[in-house]
Amino acid sequence: MDSKRSKAFSKIIKEITVAIKEGGDSDPINNPRLRVAIINAKGINMPKDNITRAISKASEKGGAHFTECSYEAYASHGVAVFIDCATDNEKRTISNIRMYLNKYNGSLGTNGSLSFIFDRKGVFTVPKGVLDQDEFEMAMIEAGAEDIQLEEESFTVTTALEDFGSMQRKLEELGIEAENAELERIPRTTVKLDIESAKKVMKLIDLLEDDDDVQNVFHNMEMTDELMDSLD
Fold first, then answer.
1. Nearest to 182 by CA among 213, 161, 166, 152
2. How confident is the model at residue 232 (pLDDT cuts 50, 70, 90)?
3. Distances in Å between the alpha carbon of 93 and those of 11, 68, 70, 71, 96?
4. Overall average pLDDT of the 30-41 stretch
5. Which residue blocks in the chain are alpha helix, DSSP H?
6. What are the pLDDT digits (tens) for 105-140?
7. Does domain 2-59 match CATH 2.60.40.1120?
8. pTM of structure
9. Under CATH, which number does the domain 118-187 receive?
10. DSSP class per residue in 101-145
11. Which of 8, 26, 151, 185 is the most exposed place for a label (fewest CB within 10 A)?
């Protein structure tokens, strides 16, 4: 658990750094991407001091600089895998990704080769109970929500890529703090595998996610209840 927490914190610190370096402003009021990074930091219970230190360090001249890059690949059995990275050494990153893919019979694709499989969407996790459900859903639809799913303790609101900013502004206007806000790659079609094959693909996914340069891994393998139970 400590390792997962450390990885999650590291990912957010990189996101804060990229947001400040690219946005040129360490004030979240003027930097929408930084606001989102801070929301996500709070969502994983990162201490306020850690967030403040990350912002301060990223604001220093000559500090760490990360390049954002994405890689498109296929795992075994035709499962499509999209890998988003933030790295200070692209040669190291691509070398590691190739090594992981080779270990589990995967292969690197060319940029754009998975564009027909994934749609990029904004996904917000919002605590329920802040507003009346009908009132909340109407406000979300007005802001561009394509889908609203009610979970046990929260709503998952999905928007088109171009509506991510307007949804963020609507939530701020309503005084609602999202628990998480991210741009995700949602598969249009999924691949269903038998349990043993799926577990091998998950070993590759886990290996990729454990790499310090990797921020997010998206895939189109169907996560059935049976598979989820086998991974517990």
1. 161
2. low
3. 15, 11, 10, 10, 5
4. 91
5. 2-23, 32-43, 48-59, 90-103, 133-142, 164-173, 195-210, 225-231
6. 999 999 889 989 999 999 999 998 878 889 999 999
7. no
8. 0.87
9. 3.30.70.980
10. HHHTT-EE--TTTTTTTEEEEEEEEEETTSS-HHHHHHHHHHTTE
11. 151
Over the chain, what is the mean pLDDT? Answer: 91
Asked, colleague to colleague, whether 67-108+191-231 and 118-187 share their fold, the answer is yes
**Could you tell me the residue ranges of all domains in the chain?**
2-59, 67-108+191-231, 118-187
Cα 190 to Cα 205: distance, rounded to the nearest angstrom: 16
Q: For residues 52 and 57, what is the distance between their CA atoms, to the nearest angstrom? A: 9
What span, in angstroms and rounded, lies between the C-alpha atoms of 95 and 147?
Answer: 38
CA-closest candidate to residue 200, choices 117, 70, 101: 101
How does pLDDT run across 177-219, given as a tens digit for each residue?
A: 899 999 999 999 999 999 999 999 999 999 999 999 999 999 9
Q: Which two tokens stand for residue 201?
A: 């693909």
Q: What is the model's pLDDT at position 153?
A: 86
Structure tokens at 85: 């990275």
Q: In what order do the strands lie in the sheet with 180-187?
A: 145-150, 154-160, 118-127, 180-187
Give domain 67-108+191-231's CATH superfamily. YebC, transcriptional regulation domain (3.30.70.980)
Model pLDDT for residues 53-70, shown as the tens digit of each residue: 999 998 887 777 889 999
Measured CA to CA in angstroms, residue 44 lies from 4, 22, 73, 170 at distances of 11, 23, 29, 22
Q: What is the DSSP letter of 191?
A: B
